[in-house]
Amino acid sequence: MSRLTARELTLAYDDRTVVHELDLAVPDGRVTVIVGPNACGKSTTLRALGRLLKPKGGAVLLDGAELAKIPTKKIARSIGLLPQSPVAPEAITVADLVARGRQPHQHWWQQWSQEDERAVTDAMERTDVTALAGRPVDELSGGQRQRVWIAMALAQETDLLLLDEPTTFLDIAHQVEVLDLVRQLNHERGRTVVAVLHDLNQAARYADHLVAMKAGRIVAEGHPDDIVNAELVREVFGMESVVVPDPVTGSPLVVPGAPYSPAPQAPTPTPQSA
Amino acid sequence: MSADTVTTVRPAGYGLVRTGRRGSFLLHRRAAGVALGLAATLAAACVAYLCVGESFVAPGEVLKVVLGQPSPDELVVGTLRLPRMVLGLLVGAAFGVAGALIQTVARNPLASPDIIGISQGASAVTVGVLTFGVTSYTVLPYLSVTGGILAAALVYVFAWRGGLHATRFVLIGIGFAIALRSITTLFMTKGDYLVAQQAQIWMTGSLNGRGWEEAAPLGWTLLALVPAVLWAARAQRTVSMDDDTATALGVRLGRVRLGLVLLGVVLASIATGAAGPVDFVALLAPQIARRTTRTAQIPLLCSALLGAVIVVLADLAARRMFSPTELPVGVLTAAIGAPYLIWLIIRSRTAGGTS
Predict the structure, then answer these.
(1) Cβ neighbour number for residue B284 with a 10 Å cutoff
(2) B229 interaction partners in chain A (CB closer than 8 Å)
(3) So what's the pLDDT on residue A269?
(4) Closest chain A C-alpha to B346 CA, distance in angstroms
(5) Would you put residue B41 in left (φ > 0), alpha (ψ -120 to 50) or beta?
(6) Which of B28, B30, B245, B291 is best to mutate for the A interface (most A CBs within 10 A)?
(7) Measured between alpha carbons, how far is B34 from B42 in angstroms, rounded to an integer?
(8) At the topology level of CATH, where does B34-51+87-347 sit?
(9) Where are the domains of chain B?
(10) pLDDT tens readout for residues A125-144
(11) pTM for the whole thing?
(12) What's the rounded Cα separation, in Å, for the pair B289 and B41?
């Protein structure tokens, strides 16, 4: 079952077509991860799924209706999206920012309800930012800030959550923390997650459904165990590799081919005099 | 915890005001406190304004006049000082809100109506018609509003490249401001000497010799715009985020931005029409308001109050400093505003940002 689907989706910036007639069905209640080399159109696709980019051709459908025809506030009650580098208003506090995730559920005359209160408290607890509530967002570390943004997206309480490279700029511990959080949300709340990730190994670890893209097209999709192999890595990233089972999870682990090392050379005679 | 045990007090720093069964409004506590303080300051400034002058009038007598009781100072306070003060107050409030709205949309404190050509557009049209013989104060405000909107539309069109980039918007606006200023000068050199002199005073922004004829229509117009300003106060919240985040939260960004800019332009233009371009109020008030309240977006009520305080105090000083000569209030606001502007630019360059 898929609430969110793309049909013959063609996306372009000005005249440059980035994604060509892409068909995609996002499986409900699963974590879908889109991977691919730089400029393969993965972030562009995600943006279109979250109606941040208007399709040049084809359509994105939510519950069978074209996104372009649904009022944007109504979409915001079903789809949450965290952009790659969101910008917080200057001097905003953590609690204030997270509370803004409630925007699509509020009205001009109804700026705060018990439901808002519950959602925000819950989102802040889940992301472990409750203790930071009164702190200004611009004073936080990268990892803390990313958790706050995720809290905002969670407070929106949407069934679908789109994350554009949520682990960029984070060190490895925070990357794992964020991805674990995503996975937990998916398991405990049945949220459908679509994330764009840079790291193929993380993608293989956390995805139920992996979508590999290259040059604006889907090369392969399916469970990581079924599709990730040396051949796919060569095709998508143009890199030689060995794929072995991850010692912890058993998911496919991509180990790149041998690194550069200087070929053994005959010692060059040093000139004694010049 | 279950939903019914939760007491709704969040988010931190905000108070909650409930009205009726479903109405609920968030109130930034610190901003509310600052607003109260500013209101008190404004009241004190107003009393001082009415007392001080060529002849000193005791606060008690001032109060009598304001309350409509018979007083020997009826003429000085009621006819000369009060309407001028009310005009200054309204103009300041209008500039304060206008600046706040346009700065919010452009995400740049330099994007104030008096910097990016809106006041200058209103001036060019007003001075143009003044020098060509139209001197009716009933027509002038409408013309200046038209001028302001036209200038804003031109800046918007030229700055648009598939999106609105803040820096380009400001730079093109500054360009237009300069061009429109020269056009205004051209009108003045072409026009009749006396009219040109009158236009010159108007252009510096002056409350001298203005009264109820200007204050009353401005007051009614501002009152009619209050619902729009209330909408804007809420809409500002989302516009202050980046485009993608705001869109993801279900905000129709294009429309909201256009609405906010339009409201700002109208406010700045009608204020300019009533008192001339009182420079820097629209730049100063929102920035100071934001720095004192430490809110995530520019607080509109505080901006309005601060704008009013600045203009009332500046006009009081303008009246008294070189007495009996009265300076145009715009000279005073420029004297405070220009150094602040320079400081703002230096600060934004060292911080590597523009806000």
Answers:
(1) 26
(2) none
(3) 59
(4) 18
(5) alpha
(6) B245
(7) 12
(8) ABC transporter involved in vitamin B12 uptake, BtuC (1.10.3470)
(9) 34-51+87-347
(10) 988 899 998 899 999 988 88
(11) 0.86
(12) 14
